Amino acid sequence: MAVLESRPFLAPASRAVHATIEIIEPAGTSFEDIGDTWEPGQRIVLRCRAELAPDFWEQTRIDPSEPVLLVGIATCLPARARWRSSARFEQIDGAWRADTLVEVDGSVVAVEVLADAWVVGPGRTGSEDPSLAIHEGAKLWQLTKPSKLELESDGAAFPTTAISFAQTGRRDVPWTVELAPEAEPFWKISSSVRLYINTDSDLAPAILDGSASEDLFALMQCDIHLAVMHSLAKWRDSIPPAQMMALAEEDVESLASFGANLAQSLGLPLSECLRLAREEPLALSARSREALSFGRSSSAS
Questions:
Q1: Could you tell me the superkingdom of the organism this chain comes from (predicted)?
Q2: Cα-Cα-Cα-Cα dihedral of 176, 158, 218, 211, to 10°?
């Protein structure tokens, strides 16, 4: 039977649509191994296919002659970009099917892509007012959960991505450290924090090939220190120091563990680093630069 699912129009049951997404380019690549086969700059092409159950039309009260579309969507949050394509459902061999290709710009994409499929059409609202009876372009159905393409392998020591800041709406600086706003201490580092290198910057080649000055890398590390401690400091009131350390010891890949290691490199207890991050951030910055020997390297310019 049709359900409303908190929407202002009739939506079909989840089983009324069967949809799949597969990777067409790079050829021979699966969702599981794309991080090992995809190369930066390489285009990604996804194929979205869907078939409607025979009772889809009855559940939605849409006439089969009306346009109902399959919409394929690829979203890259780090690149702040989205790509989509659509195709109308047609009756083929007695079944209502649609097939569309989504092309993702490899020069922009980074870190991960979320692939989703929607069914869009004229939703019936049930209103007695003819002008309000149809919700044009209603999202009638979508996948329960988007498919994720993780474009980077887990081998890197710290999550780092080189990307154009101009194309992704970021400030014109050589690098930036970004945190997931909802990150919790037990989250994996790869999901919590990331260093972005601005490929538009003249400093990018030296940063990426490791030939930049030690002081430059020290500043980058200092930014990482401050970002991680700031993120963990948000939990000071709800997670006692002993519990935070227990989290750190429980999973060496967690944000808490990474913060504990950074605190050790600064010669401070994690609890003190978190206090400084909240109450005296400038003091924490100074401690970080001192620990990293900023301004004392032989390559300082």
A1: Bacteria
A2: -100
Residues 6+ positions from 213 with CB-CB distance below 8 Å: 297, 299, 300, 301
Short-list 295, 171, 157, 165, CA closest to 224: 157
Which domain CATH number covers 46? 2.60.40
In a domain, 281, yes or no: yes
Q: How far is 121 from 238, CA to CA, in rounded Å? A: 46
Asked if 35 and 150 touch (Cβ cutoff 8 Å), the reply is yes
Total structural domains within the chain:
2
Point out the domain boundary residue: 111, 127, 150.
Answer: 150
Q: Which helix (H) or strand (E) holds 271?
A: helix 270-279
Q: Are residues 165 and 286 in the same domain?
A: yes
Structure tokens at 216: 């430059």
User: Tokens representing 254?
Assistant: 């967690």
Asked whether residue 171 is assigned to any structural domain, the reply reads yes
Mind listing the pLDDT tens digit for each residue in 35-82?
A: 877 877 789 999 999 999 999 999 999 999 999 999 999 998 877 889
The structure tokens listed for 82 are: 């989205």
Distance separating alpha carbons of residues 40 and 151, to the nearest angstrom: 9
**First-last CA distance in the chain:** 72
175 Cβ partners below 8 Å, 6+ apart?
A: 195, 196, 197, 198, 201, 207, 220, 223
Query: Which of these, 9, 55, 14, lies nearest to 141 by C-alpha position?
Result: 14
Q: Is 293 left (phi over 0), alpha (psi -120 to 50) or beta?
A: left
Burial class (CB in 10 A: 0-12, 13-18, 19+), 6: exposed
Work out whether the CA dihedral 104, 145, 18, 96 comes out positive or negative. negative
